[in-house]
Design a protein that fits this description.
CATH topology: Alkaline Phosphatase, subunit A
Low-confidence stretches: 1-5, 7-30
Helix content: 25-40%
Number of helices: 11
CATH class: Alpha Beta
Shape: globular
Strand content: 15-25%
Amino acid sequence: MPITRHLLTLLLFTSLFCLGRFEKAVATEQIKRPNILFIYTDDHSYRSIGCYPGSHPWVRTPNIDRLAKEGMRFDAAYIGTWCMPSRATQLTGRHQFGIESMRMQGKYPGSEYDPEQTPFWPKTFREQGYFTGQIGKWHTGTDTGFGRDWDYQLVWNRPKYTGTAGHYYYDQPVTFHGGETKEIKRYSTDQYTDWAIEFLNGDGRDTSKPWYLWLCYGAVHGPYTPAERHLEEYQNVDIPVPVDIFPPRPGKPDWASKFGVWKKEKDGFPYIKDRSYYDQVQQYHQAVRAIDEGVGRLIKTLEETGQRENTLIVFTSDQGFAWGQHGFRHKLAGYDANIRSPLIVSQPGRIPAGTVCRTPVSGVDLPPTFFSQAGLDVPATMHGHDLSPLLKDPEAQWNHPAMIANTWQYFGSDTNIPPADGLGGQGIPWYVMLREGKYKYIRSLIPGELEELYNLESDPEELTNLAQEQDQSTRLKEMRKATLAELKRTEAGFVERMPAVGDLE
């Protein structure tokens, strides 16, 4: 009998011990923080990615498409308006007008900032136990933050080396971990991918820590240079010309109605600087191919190293790029062709596979999401909202409109007083864009200029401005009110100085 009692006691103790170990293991797994791979391309139109509606049928991006099949594709993501402010937003979680001390200075793209007034959030990730890395293009001040914001950095510092600011694909001066700067002659897209793979493999990083890597490709920014192996791709494909490539554009604001950088050949076909529309669009898509191959290699490395299931991959671009739509070969303007970015988020077991989120989201929403996914408190200073509810259910209720403001090269309190004529650079005015549901509202800061209102469900190319339609007057007022409310919520200094709008009469 005593033996039986002793045996039962031993079995009970063993069971409790094992249960305790199991519960501890479960708790540890629950608090295990994901790695974050943030892939950031440049001037990258969503139309150049095969999985996106609106892409050409001949586009081949199998690896990015796979990422979407294994995760969630966002169909209304507005990350930024152009290179520098878009990146500044990703480093702060704030709109351009809320980033104090950032400024253009010296020869373009020279820029500076005060890290005390403009702290970058990767510093907080470091303090909370993450190993942080940045590879590739840098466009936010000559101080790249190594040792403060980044543990690991292989950076093409464009603001510092202005003489090579156009070297997007070859012969880049790259600074290694805050030390020596070397000229890297290799095709940059491939080189950045190789360096990122070394990082994923654990070379030069503390493998006991979760990691965050911001991989900033220079592609597909002009001069849209493909790798040599892709020069023969997309031959003799059909590339339709946008219907509104040449002015005028009735119903649009005066500046937009007249805008145009494309000239007509004798046969009426568009060209710029002796290069045809067809050749330029073909070359642009060829340059995307190396990015897609890089994404495939990165996914393979994560799988081979056993990190894929614990790595959140976020793929996006600083903004989009218009190829002829509304007369542009550019970003910056408030139309989807110009500034709508691809956005794909993937993590096995955490993000539902093969899903599509049509809810409009903004670039300021990404940093709060990174904090939330890492199990950290979202800083109250950030303007955006944590996208985690949408990452669980793309149909979840979302009461936050997506807003983008263009104040050209001005940041922080320098944006409090708009220019008298409302104009910025590249012939494009200061403006505020708000997307809510299927509707988009654009208000330029040109005095007396027309507002714009588009139904992107029935008019995805934004050809018909509804702002002057009588049956849309209530909606126009609601969108105008929502825009002002969002500007006030984010403390935009110029909100009280916005000029009066005009009408078509």
